[in-house]
Design goal:
By secondary structure, the chain is an alpha/beta fold. The protein is built from 13 helices and 18 strands. The chain has two domains: 101 residues, Enolase-like, N-terminal domain (Enolase-like, domain 1, 2-Layer Sandwich); 263 residues, Alpha-Beta Barrel (TIM Barrel). Strands 4, 5, 8, 9, 10, 11, 12, 13, 14 and 15 form a ten-stranded mixed sheet that branches. The chain is globular, with a radius of gyration of 20 Å. The structure holds D-gluconic acid and magnesium ion (MG). D-gluconic acid (GCO) binds next to loops.
Length: 404
């Protein structure tokens, strides 16, 4: 039996902030887990360092389910992004260790391959329809089979999802207070149909198209949007409404057949239990890092399978390559895989987190390294100290605070 003898929390900023937990066992095996929560990185770092790491020393590394329950049920205080991100980091590091000790990739431990590669989507965006079409072309040329489309809204200075750089979309910015953006549902609903229609017209029906609303609409507005976009046959419409009130989705569902994806801010099965049971969504956007790790997310996906809901795991740049490797392990092994988001990381980030997964022809391939197939280069990471950065906030034109 192998025991955990060291637990280190690393914070690094190779282009953006990442928090990583590294566990070391008595036989020298190491395991890594992503613990990054965008804009709240140091809260998770402190939770791990002060409250979790000391309890891990001496624990049986192989007892993954028991450790999960020890940290979740045992702590009395449950759920929430900080706690669930910290638990996820421990869980992924333990799966990584188990895989390395067994000499198998984690997807083998989870039941083995259900597919040969993981279909991914990229982010095409631009201020104008013309810029959007060029961005989609870039992804098509790279071999992508699915593309998320976001565009500027005429009359608004900036829009969610429209990046300043190409291929790397990063909404968090340096500073002690967040940048403020303006949102207008009226202007948005007036322009978005033309954007998605333009992309469909140019690229035909082979390419899968996705669009993210980032929690900005009321249920009935989301229903209107879903109907408006039906002719363009989206693969999914993402986060049309904030989903704390899960029954909101009943209204959307009653009015549109556009498939719905929700869940990148969810942390536990209790955030989506009704959505699954009532078949109110089609794809679940949760991520390994923010929902308690492989152990908990696998359980949720098993429940989802009963209701024919498929995965669409979050894979934005603020989830590190360690999270991506863990997501790929699940993507390979669950029967109800849908699509994986893949926003590329910068070359600096890729160098700090050497990984076995590769991109080819629209698929991510996890490779066959034992464990998660990803590591943290601590020496290189030390060259990129933490930089405070925050996600923006949004107000309506009259100054009312709105969902970002
Ligand atoms: C997505 C997300 C991201 C988030 C970001 C927040 O669909 O990829 O909406 O763009 O805004 O991950 O930290
Ligand atoms: Mg999103």
């Amino acid at each position: 039996m192998s025991r955990v003898v060291e637990a280190h929390v690393n914070v690094t900023c190779p282009g953006r902030n990442f928090v990583t937990l590294k566990l070391v066992c008595d036989d020298g095996t190491t395991g890594v887990g992503d613990a990054t929560l965008n804009g709240r990185e140091l809260a998770v770092e402190a939770y791990l360092r002060e409250h979790v790491c000391p309890m891990l020393i001496g624990r049986e590394a192989g007892a993954i389910e028991d450790t999960w329950r020890y940290l979740y049920n045992g702590a009395y205080w449950r759920r929430g992004p900080v706690t669930m991100t910290a638990i996820a980091a421990v869980d992924c590091a333990l799966w990584d260790i188990k895989g390395k000790q067994a000499g198998m990739p984690v997807y083998e431990l989870l039941g083995g391959r259900c597919r040969t590669g993981v279909t991914v989507y990229g982010h095409a965006n631009g201020e104008t329809v013309g810029e959007v079409l060029d961005a989609v072309q870039t992804y098509v040329d790279l071999g992508y089979k699915a593309v998320r489309v976001q565009a500027g809204i005429p009359g608004l200075e900036s829009t969610y999802g429209v990046s300043r750089g190409k291929l790397f979309y990063e909404p968090a910015e340096g500073g002690l207070a967040p940048r403020e953006e303006t949102w207008s549902t009226r202007l948005y609903l007036r322009s978005i149909g033309e954007v998605l229609g333009g992309v469909r017209e140019r690229f035909g029906h082979e390419l899968e198209l996705l669009h993210d609303v980032h929690h900005r609409l009321s249920p009935i507005e989301a229903a209107q949007l879903g109907r408006l976009l039906e002719p363009h046959q989206l693969f999914w419409l993402e986060d049309p409404v904030p989903a704390e009130l899960q029954s909101n989705l009943r209204v959307v569902r009653q009015h549109t057949t556009t498939p719905i994806a929700i869940g990148e801010v969810f942390n536990s099965i209790w955030d989506c239990e009704q959505l699954l049971r009532e078949q109110l969504i089609d794809y679940l956007r949760m991520s390994v890092v923010h929902s308690g790790g492989i152990t908990h997310l696998r359980r949720i996906l098993h429940l989802a399978e009963l209701y024919r809901v498929r995965s669409g795991f979050h894979g934005a740049t603020d989830l590190s390559p360690v999270c991506m490797a863990a997501a790929l392990a699940l993507d390979m092994a669950i029967p109800n895989f849908g699509l994986q988001e893949y926003m590329r990381h910068t070359p600096e980030t890729d160098a700090v987190f050497p990984h076995a997964y590769t991109f080819a022809d629209g698929y991510l391939l996890p490779g066959d390294q034992p464990g998660l197939g990803v590591d943290l280069d601590e020496e290189l990471a030390a060259q990129y100290p933490y930089q405070p950065a925050l996600l923006p906030v949004t107000r309506l034109p009259d100054g009312t605070m709105h969902d970002w």
